[in-house]
Write a structure and sequence with these properties.
Blueprint (H helix, E strand, L loop, with lengths): L14 H11 L8 H14 L3 E7 L3 E8 L5 E3 L5 H4 L7 E3 L12 H4 L6 E8 L5 E9 L9 H41 L5 H43 L3 H29 L11 H7 L1 H8 L15
Helix pairs in contact: 2-5, 5-6, 6-7
Length: 311
């Protein structure tokens, strides 16, 4: 039976919004994942603790996304230390000896297994400021954290929040992709022969395809920007700038060409009229000569149509 003198944590004023954010995350009762297991491994190693948790506080329970040192995956919310921690989202909570703390001295987890004495936990906070749970370490003997360990624990909590943010972003992108696929399938499957209706359906098809192309183009453009930045840094830091410059120049030229193709895709997605320009194929091939030599081998040579001996 619960101890009548045990003090459960109060419910925060923002509890409805906090629970909604947790529900949108859709992570409760999911399988173990290496990224979160790594968090608790680092926590036990850095803080030299026997127990570490990535915990999430639901309406009536504390569930562990990752856990080291305990055989259970959840505990009642009214018995948890972490429910007290989330009341102050910006504060690391340390309990050096739970038997001396009136909030926890009668706690069933202190009086019985796992016989908690030491606890240190820092909230996992969303961008909106909701504390969903904690990264915490626990020990069976009274102790405290030494210099550097509190900052490390807070860093692990921020990393966990970033993992959750990536998860939520992935969920949103998946939903957007499925909705877009549904729109495209619906548009392509409609064979109404009426002229006005056919024009409308064609516009819907083009709009859906343009939306898809726009999303791909933006993602690919981000990759090109990263590649271009890396090539520029290599060019600046190279010991033999003249030799390396030939390669980086070819790479940057390819990035610029890719960026031009992306601009055309984006123009199509916005239904803009393309700008036509003359293109010298010979110059493009000459600019890629070094790259082609690496890819095709030294036995393959490029030559101009007007001069068969040119290489």
């Amino acid at each position: 039976m619960p101890n009548p003198s045990h003090r459960a944590a109060t419910i925060p004023e923002s509890e409805p919004e906090r629970l909604l954010a947790l529900r949108w995350l859709d992570v409760l009762d999911t399988l173990a994942e290496l990224a979160y297991d790594d968090i608790v491994t680092l926590a036990t190693t850095i803080c030299r603790a026997r127990i570490a948790l990535v915990s999430l506080i639901n309406s009536n329970r504390q569930w562990f996304k990752a856990c080291i040192g305990l055989s259970v995956r959840e505990t009642p919310r009214d018995q948890t230390f972490c429910a007290h921690t989330v009341l102050q989202p910006s504060t690391l909570m340390i309990v050096e000896d739970a038997t001396l703390d009136p909030r926890f001295s009668s706690n069933p987890l202190v009086l019985g297994e796992p016989h908690i004495r030491f606890y240190a936990g820092t909230p996992i906070v969303t961008d909106e400021g909701h504390a969903l749970g904690t990264v915490c370490v626990i020990d069976r003997v009274p102790r405290t954290l030494n210099a550097g360990q509190p900052a490390a624990l807070e860093a692990l909590a921020r990393q966990t929040a970033a993992l959750f943010e990536l998860r939520q972003l992935s969920i949103r992108r998946g939903e957007e992709k499925r909705e877009l696929q549904r729109k495209i399938t619906h548009a392509l499957s409609d064979s109404d022969s009426d002229d006005d209706t056919g024009t409308l359906k064609q516009n819907q098809r083009m709009g859906s395809i343009g939306q898809l192309i726009g999303g791909i183009a933006h993602d690919f453009n981000n990759l090109l920007q990263t590649i271009g930045t890396c090539l520029q840094l290599i060019d600046r830091q190279a010991a033999d700038a003249q030799r390396v410059g030939r390669w980086t120049a070819s790479g940057l030229s390819a990035v610029a060409h890719g960026a031009g193709l992306i601009a055309q895709l984006l123009a199509f997605s916005r239904r803009e009229s393309p700008e036509l320009e003359a293109l010298c194929v010979t110059e493009r091939i000459r600019g890629m000569r070094d790259l082609l030599a690496c890819a095709l081998g030294t036995d393959i040579r490029s030559r101009s149509g007007s001069n068969p001996k040119a290489s």
